[in-house]
Every structure is written in structure tokens, then in C-alpha cells.
Amino acid sequence: MTAVPLVEARDLVKTYGSRRPLTSKGQPVRAVNGVTLKLQRGETLGLVGESGCGKSTLGRLILGLEAADSGSVDFDGSPLAPPGSAEWRRSRARMQMVFQDPLSALDRLLPIAAQIREPLVIHRFGSQAQMDERVGDLLNAVGLTAAQGKRLPGELSGGQRQRAVLARALATSPDLLVCDEPTSALDMLVQAQVLDLFAEIQSVSGVAILFISHDLRALRQVSDRVAVMYLGGIVEEGPTRQVLEAPRHPYTQALISSVPGVHGLNPNRILLRGEPPSPTQRQPGCAFHPRCAGAVHACGQTVPAFRPASSPSHRVACHLLPTGGTPAAIARTVA
User: Whole-prediction pTM value?
Assistant: First the structure.
């Protein structure tokens, strides 16, 4: 019997009004365009893509922080309650978000321990003594001392603030964490420490994590599976090793080839032609085809369906896949 996913999103669409409200030619922006994905209990799904591809919006739709124009989200086998409803607010104890900038996510005038206590009060965790004990346990779990819990956010380092944000997110023992670029504001050493902390917390608590990042190295370290997003849609997903070591979509290949090595830029990196297309001026067919060196006629006509690639769990949306795929043979460096 197949286990019910903790999260199952189907055909999510989110469109915003024009980002140029003072111009008469402003067009709606399709930030998320028909995304379907699943997240199992205790799993980390890494979500990667260029800035502006819709990653953060997708995370907010899954949590119900924003309402989708169409599509659905099931949480633990049941439809997610409408955002803002009493039922949705009750479910928030089971779903939490870790934001990119910990200083902005924290109240600068409130001690850390008091901020960790807030969700316990909101969700009526227990007595004052029980909450005190829980706050102490959370501080210890994320590597902060009781003395640091008495400090204001501005008195902590960036890594310590991110640990505090994580402690607050874990206060209600959630089943799901959506982490939006949680290490991007940290230096490399602190990033590694925080990523280790995420892995440790998950191994102990079994929390599922949607880890949103542009950093492929971070995703490799923490993710069980990876989904690659381009212009509002998922183009490739599968087990982390298969996607990052044997990418089949030309966009994924270009993304991975752009990661610098120990000796600097990859001399064989794939240079995509042109600029990323505007989400207000979508062309027919595959969203990536205007920049794809291997594009054929079908790519500009119809949206490709997902197909199995190296395994049934590794799926790619690319017309070129049935012809032997588009590993490096098709994807080539172009000016």
C-alpha cells in the first residue's frame, strides 16, 4: 500500500498583477505555472532555480500563506484549509516557515527565548513551567545557551540568529518546515554548521523539509530529492544524486555546469543564449526552448510532459528525452 504523502500539490497556478502598475502596458505575472509535486514524511525536497523562477511563491502556496488561483494542496491526506480561516490557523502548528533573513524574521526588541515561547502560547502548549522547559530544550537542540536566549537578536551573530529562528519554527513540533534560502545570508563556515543542524534536527524529529535554495552545494548536502524550477514550472525532479550527477534536462545541465570548482569557473560550462524570458510574455511550448541549444520544432509548439529518465523516480519534462535524452551530446556551449 502506497503511503499518503505529507504534502501533495496539484497543478498550482499563481498570477500576480502587473509589476509596473503605472504603465498602461503592464501584464500579469504568472509566478507559478501548473506545478505538481509530493513531499513524504521525514523527507527533504530541495527546490532550486534562478532568482525569480517562483520558488518562494511555491513555498508560500504550499503553506497556505497565499491562495493559489487554481490547483490544490493536500496536507496529510486532506485538502489544506482556506488561508486565514480558523481551521487553517489551527493547522499552522504543524507547518512552519524558516525565512531567508533571520534578523528581519525576529523582533529586534524581544529576547530570543520570549520569541521561541510565542508559538507555544498561541497554540496553548501547556503550563508556564512546561513552556519554560520546552524553550530550554529547543535552545539546547539548536546549539544555543540559556544566556543567549536572554539576548536580543542584534546581540547574536548571523548563525546564532538563524538557529533561533529554527528553534522558534520547531517549537510546536511541526510535521513540515518550508525553508526559504535559510543559509544564503551566512558565510561558508556558518552555512555548513547550519546545514548540519538541519540534518541533525530532521534525523531526531522526522520533520519533512522543503528546502528552497539557489545553492546546489547546500541542496546536495541536505536533500533526499531535488526539483528544478524554471519560469514557474518544474522541469526535472528525482533523487538528489541522479539529478545532480546525471541531469537530463538542458536547463539543469546548464545550472550545474555554472557551479565553480576548486580552480574557479568550469571551463566546460554551458552558456545559455539570450536573457531569461519575461514571465509576462510567455511563448508557446516549453518555457525553456528560446534558450535551449538543442530545441527542435516540437519544443516551440507543445508543453512537454514528464517522462521517466534514468529511473522511474527521476522525471524530466523535455521533448528531447525519448531520442536518447539531452545529456551533453545535445546541450552545447553557445554565445
Answer: 0.88
